[in-house]
Amino acid sequence: MNAILITPLFASGALQFAFEKATTEGKMTIGVLTLVSLFSWTVIISKLRQILRARKMTRKFMQAYAQGKDPLDLQRQGTDFSGAPLFEVYRTGATILNDQMELVPADAQGRRRITESTFALVRTAMERAVSGQAMALEKGMIVLSTAVSGGPFIGLLGTVWGVMDTFSGVAKANAASLTAMAPGVAGALIATVIGLLVAIPAMFAYNFMVTTIRAITQEMDDFTAEYAVHLEHRYVKEPRLAEEIAAALQGGAGTVPDRTEPELALR
Fold first, then answer.
1. Does any domain span residue 267?
2. Is 80 within the bounds of a domain?
3. What whole-number distance in Å separates Cα of residue 29 and Cα of residue 140?
4. Which domain holds residue 58?
5. What local confidence, expressed as pLDDT, does residue 244 receive?
6. pTM of the entire structure?
7. 94: exposed, middle or buried (C-beta count within 10 Å: 0-12, 13-18, 19+)?
8. Distance (Å, whole) CA 244 – CA 251
9. pLDDT in tens, 208-255
10. d(Cα 118, Cα 101) in Å, to the nearest integer?
């Protein structure tokens, strides 16, 4: 009973008959679509694995990062979260920051702090890392978009070509009967069917992956902003003006500035 239901559902007999009756051009079209499908499914499987690993490792990284008191704790511990785009951004920022801090002398408390202008290099490096990770996630997506947009058209080309050959053969044979036309039309339509079978899975996978990659990219932007604030608060010197004001408040509190000569002249 199940075999009786499954056979009409997938039309395996019809597909086999149509493929046998397809013209050489139609079979070449089906061959091209088969290659596109192989590339498409290769990208789908690899990107799904990459995205799932990125999600899993990102959750672990964020849990570990939230538990640390210092933003560079994970870097000093040597903890590795390979596969997490946020960790690559974190590692880039920590590496550049450590390189810059080695160039400045330590203060009286033994701490090293960089200037705001130097910290701009760290920000730029992290932004570049975000762009690089986004491009890595999007790599190969062009194959899916090509399969979505090009698959049906390639199949349609094979169908139109097959129908053209069928009608040409009928005209030459002077036999315009349904029996003479049906095999050729069936052989032509299989190209469109294969084109749709290539495009439909690629379309669903492409929409899912684009949405997921967009969410991961937004997470990287948010984390970069938060991470930069933590680093700046702990490892960047206060602006010189703020230091001068603080020194003035500590050393000259309650003092009245001297009046200038023009002020005295007015009195």
1. no
2. yes
3. 23
4. 17-249
5. 56
6. 0.75
7. buried
8. 10
9. 999 999 999 999 999 999 999 999 888 887 765 555 555 566 665 444
10. 9
